[in-house]
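Technical appendix A lists one of the benchmark inputs used to test multi-chain prediction within the project. The record comprises two sequence entries:
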Amino acid sequence: GAVVSQHPSRVICKSGTSVKIECRSLDFQATTMFWYRQFPKQSLMLMATSNEGSKATYEQGVEKDKFLINHASLTLSTLTVTSAHPEDSSFYICSARGELGYNEQFFGPGTRLTVL
Amino acid sequence: GENVEQHPSTLSVQEGDSAVIKCTYSDSASNYFPWYKQELGKGPQLIIDIRSNVGEKKDQRIAVTLNKTAKHFSLHITETQPEDSAVYFCAARDTGFQKLVFGTGTRLLVSP
């Protein structure tokens, strides 16, 4: 399957700081990228959907000013957690979907964010 | 909107046995059903998928079946191995919003 990378894999930051997570589709062009959040032993919760060159669409209950998403190119999307607080600590996973085949959706390896 | 239910939540089998995980969906407009395997601390990995115009698909030891009338689909793993131990998620995607809706996950444990 196609490869999606995510960086960093793990980040620890102090409360009040901002953290940026990068997501890249390595061998295909991703017209649509998704950002998920996952708590321990739970399913994936969709946070937002982004299309290259346009504003992200956020799911109900997700603060767009806190979770800034930029889909700058067909291979790169970034998630910035602004003014992070301990309750933002979680596993963040990006996903990318291309236009080839049957629009399969591939996931990155995830980023473990810990806010102290 | 779409709602996906997944059972069982945990499944323990002996190595070599078969494992079956079942999902039901609510929206008849859904037409794409992928299955993902997630190992501890990693992102989900697409292992097999099926579209609504197909009833069954097989890839080596794994297979997926779809019953559109009953709105349920199942993952079948034969000859299980310890490395199959992971959490498995089913999902459904509709033609409208094009978003995957995930089941709650099944923790599969294969004992040697």
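The mean pLDDT of chain A is 92. The first strand of chain A starts at residue 4 and ends at 7. Comparable benchmark entries are summarised in Table A2.
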